[in-house]
Amino acid sequence: MKARLQSLPYGWRLLLATVALGIGTGLVGIACHFLLDGVQKLAFGQERSDLLQQFREAGGLRRFLVLSVTGLLAAGFWYVLQKRYKILSIRKQIDQVGDREPAPLAHILHASMQVAIVGAGASVGKEGAPREVGALIAGRLGKVLSLTIKEQRVLIACGAGAGLAAVYQIPFASSLFVFETLGLSYRWKNVLLVLSSTYLAAWVAQPIVGHGAIYHLSQVHWSASGFLQAVLVALLVTPLALAFRFLAKQASRKRRKDWTILWALPLAFMVLAGIVIFYPIFMGNGQVLAQAVLSGQPFSNLALILVVKGLLVYILLSNGAYGGTLTPSFALGIGSGYLVTMILSAVGVQLDPALGMLLGATVFLGTTLQAPMTAIALSLGFTGQSWALILPLALSAGVSYVIQNRWENKR
Fold this sequence. Notes:
mainly alpha; globular
């Protein structure tokens, strides 16, 4: 079979790899969806349309026990896995094509645990898992079909974007992510491969994952004051996002992988478990917090909530957990944008809270991902907003980008 595939003309092999990748990552998105829902139902009971309600109805003791047990299981799992296998990041998979191959089973198990702990309420993102499995599938396809090293690297980047597109149903934002975050060049062939794989993956997963916006927010409109708001939000939120990006990078760099993970990670989970007994708003990857703010739920201590949420992400990641920071960044950005707008309104600068939340999310995502265009597309895609908002969001992302560059140059 492999010999027959390799006898095909190169162009057909590349096309076959792209189609197979789109279908494969779409199925990965479906698997992640079922795994997340299955763990949540097992851990917290009957599924609810409102995830926060599901967590609340489970009760404080159940939330505590679920997270405590999850911490013990996750610590043992990652200790054994990393002792036996080397887990390669997507960047390393791209860079080491032809020299080193990731262990398929180890990476699939690694990704599955990331989704499982989010389903159990861990404060990390789930998006890393489908990206990693998508990259893994792409690498195998590239080898089987004997693509050139250069094309294999492009295909692995496509796999990461397609995995993200399948889970969140955001193919355009995922395509931008591939170019901005993974550094793929904007050549016409690359653009075609990325768009084909991401849109096909989203289409395959759509019947199960759904195609509606993840977060519910009425359509936001803007006026001339939106430009002032964009600048102010960028000036005030970017430093917060830079602080979170610094913490996330430190956590990744210093993540425990030796035997100390066996006590440190369960302890980190118990810290989270102790907090969510009384405050279930901290459960999960940030979706609950973001939706609560978007829905207009009153928070008298929102600033403290945002600080605690960011620290919980850091504590879990630095002590051995794996997971993404995209969804936590979105939640922190929504909350920061809303908080900044309310503070400005209190001093007499009347601005739109809904627009402020989207601006904050764009600034936060653009800073943590270091991808301003991706951030704009994510903020609009997650909330189902019109592209008519692109002007104030682009201004905010641009101002934030300038601030980041000046900060980096001073270091």
